[in-house]
Amino acid sequence: MALPIQSMLRTSQPGEPVGPLAAVSTCLRKGFQFSGRASRSEYWWITLYVILLSAAQQLLESRLARRKPKPTEHQRDARLLPVLGALAGVTALVTCNVSLSVRRLHDVNRSGWWFLLTFIPGPGTIALLVMAALPSNPRGARFDRRRS
Question: How far is the C-alpha of 103 from the C-alpha of 81, rounded, in Å?
Answer without folding.
Answer: 33
